[in-house]
Amino acid sequence: MREMALGLAASFFFAVTFILNRSMELAGGSWTWSSSLRFFFMVPLLFAILLARRSLGPIWRDMKRYPWTWIVWGTVGFGLFYAPLTYAAAYGPGWLVAGTWQCTIVAGVLLSPLFIERRETKNGTVLVRRPIEKRALFISFFILLGVVLIQFQQASRLTWKEIALGVFPVLIAAFAYPLGNRKMIEHCAGRLDAFQRVFGMTMASLPFWFVVALIGWVTAGVPSAGQTAQSLIVAISSGVIATTLFFIATDRAKGNERKLAAVEATQSGEVIFAVIGEVLLLSAPFPNGLAFVGLAVIVAGICWHSFESAKTVNRQAPPVSAASRSYRVGEEQ
What radius of gyration do the chain's Cα atoms show? Predict the structure, then answer.
């Protein structure tokens, strides 16, 4: 129960991102500053954490050795993730963006063949491209049903242009985030921990954020004091507090796959917290009955997804077939 409480607390602080992004847009703040300021603030915050943990050396050495790997996937995983999210906040309430964001679960399943895993066979260790898990994909599309139901409340009041600008950018972010992060996890291969990886990707994405900030300065001028303060809150809430709480929860649950799956499922709570936060703080319209059904489907689907994953963790990996694209470790592909 304590791990579940930590996971729910993390989802609460993650939800602050969606609420404050919408708040800054309603106050007239430019999405360019809402997105770039968060990562500018993240640099000193993460630097202080790694300095306190005395773990800066390994990440600096790896970034120096593989600069383009970090720049490319840092920009994809953070730049093409967060910029579209803040852009979409200008066209829909935070809970709508948060609900659409759950498409990232489907994206993660569809991107599986782009990643390689090690498998032990009687002939030695081989590297195999991960297949698309059909059962996981089915559950993910069940979650998408909930996303569609959520859209219905706004659909009657939005133009096609507004729908395109408010939903499609989130879909881009939904694919960019797992792609960038998983590519960097694959690159790090256990050499760096999560804090080091997040700091490295933040640093590597700074050129992208400087361009975004320049666009903001040219088109909207300097950010207001209120927008700057709210961006700092997002950086602390989502980048530091939420991440730390979630890591503590998963660390406490490791070794017990069902408990770990339950902790991961608590992150679906960010949609619910975004709804409550916008209704209470931003006077957003209360979701109708159909939207509530959609929210319930999303939560149920994510929980189903997590528990199904837990059930298969300890199953023996299927044998490597001739059709699988694989090769022995140390051999040319």
Answer: 20
Dihedral angle of Cα 115, 137, 151, 269, to the nearest 10 degrees: -80
Query: Which residue, 1, 19, 14, is CA-closest to 268?
Result: 14
Q: What angle do CA 155, 157, 158 make, to 5 degrees?
A: 65
Half-sphere exposure of 11 (CA within 13 A, CB side): 23
pLDDT tens-digit series, residues 125-166: 666 776 676 776 787 778 778 777 876 766 666 677 767 777
Residue 14 CB neighbour total at 10 angstroms: 22
Tally Cβ neighbours within 10 Å of residue 202.
Answer: 22
C-alpha 25/C-alpha 7 separation (Å) is 28
Record the tokens describing residue 53, joined without a space.
């943990």
User: Which residues, 6 or more positions from 50, have their beta carbon under 8 angstroms from its beta carbon?
Assistant: 56, 59, 195, 196, 199
Phi and psi at 67, nearest 5°, equal -65, -40
The stretches of the chain forming alpha helices (DSSP H) are 2-26, 31-53, 56-65, 67-74, 80-88, 94-100, 104-110, 134-155, 160-188, 194-204, 206-220, 225-234, 243-253, 257-265, 269-281, 289-313
Dihedral sign (CA 296, 157, 219, 227): negative
298 DSSP assignment: H
Tell me the residue type at 332: E
- Tokens standing for 183? 């590519």
Closest listed residue to residue 79, CA positions, set 182, 181, 187: 181
Q: How many residues in the chain?
A: 333
Whether 217 shows a pLDDT value over 60: the answer reads yes
User: CA nearest 295: which of 137, 149, 136, 85?
Assistant: 149
* Domain extent listing, the chain: 2-328
